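Intended use. Records like the one below are meant for learning the mapping from a protein sequence to its folded structure. Do not use them to infer anything beyond what is encoded.
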Amino acid sequence: MELTGSISGLNRKCLRLSKLIRPAAHPRRYAHHYKLNLVRYMPMKKRSKRKWILIFSIVVAACVLTILSPFFIRTYIIQAYKIPAGSMKPTLLIGDHILVDKLTKNLDKIERGDIVVFVYPPDPRKDFVKRVIGLPNDLIEIRDKALYVNDNLFQEDYVIHIDTNIIPARIRPRDNLGPLRVPPNSLFVLGDNRDASFDSRFWGFVNLSAIKGKVSKIYWSWDKENFQVRWDRIGQTVH
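Structure written out for the chain above:
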């Protein structure tokens, strides 16, 4: 009896254990034992899949924007340049890094006195930076280094002259020129370092289609001769 009783007790224990095991082996049949909501469980997989698709799409879009944004910005909005020569001293120094606003290259946004970057007419592979002096239909004349626009003396507080000699027009047009009429859709440009600038006095007018934009700011400036940063020039607006 004692042995039979032990077997019966063991059977009861095994029966209880089998009830615990069965739901794991047959989750759909015994889901109510664990209150498993299979109807809700399946859509979670779908939502998770959509989530990963969304994340992947965002990553791809970010990569595309990272690649294309510099090209778009450089082509249509703003471009950086470095000043390699001193023809625009003292306004722009060698080692200045400038930002050019490419949204202001239309004639209606360019004014006399603006500093512009343009394609160098004799060699389209190069870009030059100069100051706009003559607009379409302006009359330009230089008499012994003095600039006249439309027969009026043009005051220029930004200009420097490093040579006191006066060169006659028959030798070179540096100090004496004109009068010249600026053609339609064209500009007459000069460097601020007037005696050391190669500009419209020597190679003519700049067509409006060659303008790349107006110089807006100096974002970095490095003095190579003294091997130091020109901190006071960083962030300056260029006039």
